């Protein structure tokens, strides 16, 4: 069984006032975690996210755009927000929701990102909220992996190696 472990730690100490910040990032067998522990004048905050079920949809035909999906669990003690996503493969990356407009399903950007409350799990999946990769510079192909970086307001940034598939998450989610 292939195991991948990446561990990064950053420590910030400021001399005056008392602020400590410790960030860690790890990736292992389809689970990626990012967390930041902050202590500002004795007030401790633990922001932590666990990412699973991530995938990028393979670029289809001449379509200049595609989408990425991820399930995000807030395992910390504070509400947090997915602020943005980034990918070297695309000119622009946006967070999108799916909304009913009359009787049609329409995509709409989420300019303020996506709030993920402490203890809550948010699924970005086919037919629902998703990461939109616009203006593809490289075309993700089935069987490859693609790095996508997610930035959370409190937990920090994490880069996820997402598998690329013609039918993303079809094993995990039936009915799509
Ligand atoms: Cu979209």
Apparent shape? globular
What proportion strand?
over 45%
Write out the distinct hetero groups bound to the structure. copper (II) ion
Q: Summarize model confidence as the mean pLDDT.
A: 88
Question: How far is the first residue's CA from the last residue's CA?
Answer: 29 Å
Strand-pairing-aware structural class: mainly beta
CATH fold-level label: Immunoglobulin-like
> From the alpha-carbon coordinates, what is the Rg to the nearest angstrom?
17 Å
In the residues, how many domains can be counted?
A: 1
Helix coverage percent: under 10%
Series of H and E elements: EEEEEEEEEEEEE
CATH superfamily: PCu(A)C copper chaperone
CATH architecture: Sandwich
Folded structure, characterized:
The chain has 176 residues and is mainly β. It has a single domain (8-162), classed as Sandwich (Immunoglobulin-like). 0% of the residues lie in helices and 61% in strands. The protein has no helices and 13 strands. The chain has strands at 8-14, 19-28, 31-40, 43-57, 66-74, 80-86, 90-101, 104-109, 114-116, 121-124, 130-136, 145-152, 156-165. Strands 1, 2, 3, 4, 5, 6, 7, 8, 9, 10, 11, 12 and 13 form a 13-stranded mixed beta sheet that branches. The radius of gyration is 17 Å and the shape is globular. It starts with 7 loop residues before the first strand and ends in an 11-residue tail after the last strand. The structure holds copper (II) ion (CU).
């Amino acid at each position: 069984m292939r195991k991948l472990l990446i561990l990064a730690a950053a420590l910030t100490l400021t001399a005056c006032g008392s602020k400590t910040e410790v960030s860690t990032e790890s990736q292992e067998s389809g689970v990626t975690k990012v967390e930041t522990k902050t202590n500002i004048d004795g007030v401790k905050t633990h922001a932590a996210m666990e990412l699973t079920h991530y995938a990028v949809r393979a670029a289809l035909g001449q379509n200049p755009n595609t989408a990425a999906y991820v399930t995000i669990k807030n395992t910390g003690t504070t509400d947090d927000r997915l602020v943005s996503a980034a990918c070297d493969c695309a000119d622009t990356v946006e967070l999108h929701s799916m909304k009913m407009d009359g009787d049609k399903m329409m995509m709409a950007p989420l300019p303020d990102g996506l709030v993920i409350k402490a203890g809550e799990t948010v699924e970005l999946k086919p037919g629902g909220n998703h990461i939109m990769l616009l203006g593809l510079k490289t075309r993700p192909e089935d069987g490859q992996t693609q790095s996508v970086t997610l930035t959370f307001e409190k937990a920090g940034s994490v880069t996820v190696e997402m598998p690329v598939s013609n039918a993303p998450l079809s094993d995990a989610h039936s009915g799509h």
